[in-house]
């Protein structure tokens, strides 16, 4: 089946997680994504985890479905090659600071001077304008500055990060929306545009209704462990042989929970009989749920909760996730083969399209692996030209 | 300026966070989004936080930029109206279970029988197929089942959720990518398609390289508080008057950190002089950073770190986030006015487009607020027909 982005070419100058993940998902949907690295390799080839053969694992995941070329953007002799490439490009993805980007000729004005059909996706710590625009940013710094850390972790504890780079992922995904909006609009105008994604913006956008709570109710939300403030019972509970998460979010599910937990006598109790009162008695309700769960195994708990339609699930360890039959049925852990290492499991494609399903199916390139194809075949450089560029350290 | 999605009409049948947020962002980019609720109002109008006037705050945020109509999908008399609406619709967004969707006539086959140009975005707990497909799902349950909770929180502590619904946000954003891919492809084929997003898939997709670590290195990642496993120094550190987060991710920044922290004598120490060794001495390096930060105020720390280009930032409380000048310069906290309540702050639009910037600028509708416009003006129902539909409880 064809990809929805067949015929689209993307140049990916980014690094680490957010940009590379975004570019990989464009590749998964059919775009030809060319990762452009400095001749020595991108910085994410030097960050852990490291395989026994010394290779860094980030690109093994985040640079699948890409071609790999080298180009030293700081070398004046790179400009000719870059412009030839840009003439055939639809999307440029980069994560330089606004100032550096301009020096490298990758700002929108410079790109459009070569090819006005290009869209430019910039993912940076703080965005292309604003007082912090030139600062170096990072997923966890953004989590801290947006207040996400202030409301994560045990009650009364120190601020805590989410255990994965949720802001990087969010930035990648907002970036995809932006790229697609720009491509869609280009169908009408013929022109590309710039998309500015900032990690801090992304983290702030994830903050639910906490600012409204402060302004309207005068309540500053704090970390509350695994509870949520306005539903009950809602928590992680310890069963005999593991943890489960249970959340009762509507009156319908409250009534079902009462039946399952054998507390039908509390169903119509005025302290508990609606969403609007239940959360005020969260402590009591969570204790009831904790006692009920505590007397059972995970399997027993879920065996009663799930048929009742209640949102409940096991809190799994990583080996359990890898062994899960639903994760497997959804193809959510793939294996990429890397020479001398063997199969490397990575998360799969979390978007299932009926007509253009796409797939993550091509292992990440080695440094410069596709120089010959891209520069030779695509841009028609002669072997002599390529040899000269290599000798000059341009590629 | 025009929106990139001008002329696109979306029907939003969803609830709570993921679906409504996705639909709101389509509206922010110019689509006409019609939220379709049961005549009594959607379930998210009954969940906290609640304003003093009794209204629920979720829709105040997640249903901005939408029109609101009522329609009882379970009423047989609703079908005529639904089909008239679908004939003029580009995208349907729903969050029912696969079985319920079919009963309601909102599966792709039923939709395409009316209008083959429709794309159907389904966001559910477990997706449209697989052994758990009919289970009820939820953000935090997905966090638990994907292993995200297993690696969040203090070292040695219990599994912990991220403090906001990061999986719901992820699902909304993957959904936007899917909708845009479908609209882009429709330009060529004239036909819409189905997009299947599952909260569990999304959560698994956020798990970085942890599965690769297990398979290749035999290492099961665990919660490690605010550290990250492969960079150092990297942690949250306590200054005299607050917390800062600092992360040294490359050798360049290590050298700069040495200068700032006055430890140039350690710069070339073989224990510390590259990414590939530094993380093995994380404890020692984090202690050095903790001591240096601990002797200074937040402002003093950042006053030295930031000019050196180091990724460092304050870990802020929610009031500090709301007061931040950069958040403000990026328009990342907006105010929506609701009658009898006044201005309600909500997070702003985390995507800045140069040509079609879009905006979140219209407060959420009351239940059925746009019945007259949508059913009367758009679908040309007469006042008598509308009165009859209302009397029958259809709208």
Brief summary:
The structure is a homodimer of 395-residue chains. The first copy, chain A, is α/β, with parallel strands linked by helices and 395 residues long. The first copy, chain A, has helices at residues 18-28, 58-62, 79-86, 98-103, 108-114, 139-145, 166-189, 199-205, 210-217, 251-261, 275-278, 282-294, 298-305, 318-323, 325-329, 371-378, 383-391; strands spanning 9-12, 32-37, 67-70, 91-94, 119-124, 194-198, 234-239, 242-247, 311-315, 333-338, 342-347, 352-353.
Throw out a few tags for this protein.
3-stranded antiparallel β-sheet, 17 helices, homodimer, 37% helix, 395 residues, 15% strand
Describe the structure.
2 copies of one chain form a homodimer. By secondary structure, chain A is α/β, with parallel strands linked by helices. Chain A has helices spanning 18-28, 58-62, 79-86, 98-103, 108-114, 139-145, 166-189, 199-205, 210-217, 251-261, 275-278, 282-294, 298-305, 318-323, 325-329, 371-378, 383-391, and strands at 9-12, 32-37, 67-70, 91-94, 119-124, 194-198, 234-239, 242-247, 311-315, 333-338, 342-347, 352-353. Chain A has a 6-stranded parallel β-sheet, sandwiched between helices. In chain A, strands 7-8-9 form a 3-stranded antiparallel β-sheet, with helices on one face. Chain A has a two-stranded antiparallel sheet with strand order 10-11. The longest helix of chain A has 24 residues, at 166-189. The radius of gyration of chain A is 25 Å and the shape is elongated. The interface between A and B is large, with 157 and 158 residues.
SS element count, helices of chain A: 17
User: Structural class of the secondary elements of chain A?
Assistant: alpha/beta
Radius of gyration of chain A (CA) equals 25 Å
pLDDT averaged over residues of chain A: 97
> Low-confidence stretches of chain A at least 5 residues in length (pLDDT < 50)?
none
Assembly status: homodimer
Most extensive protein-chain contact, per-chain counts: A-B, 157 and 158 residues
Largest sheet of chain A: 6 strands, parallel
User: N-to-C SSE series of chain A?
Assistant: EHEHEHEHHEHHEHHEEHHHHEHHEEEHH
Helix content of chain A: 25-40%
N-C termini distance of chain A? 35 Å
Q: Using DSSP, what is the number of strands of chain A?
A: 12
Overall spatial form of chain A: elongated
What portion of residues of chain A belong to β-strands? 15-25%
* Order of strands in the sheet with most strands of chain A: 3-2-1-4-5-6
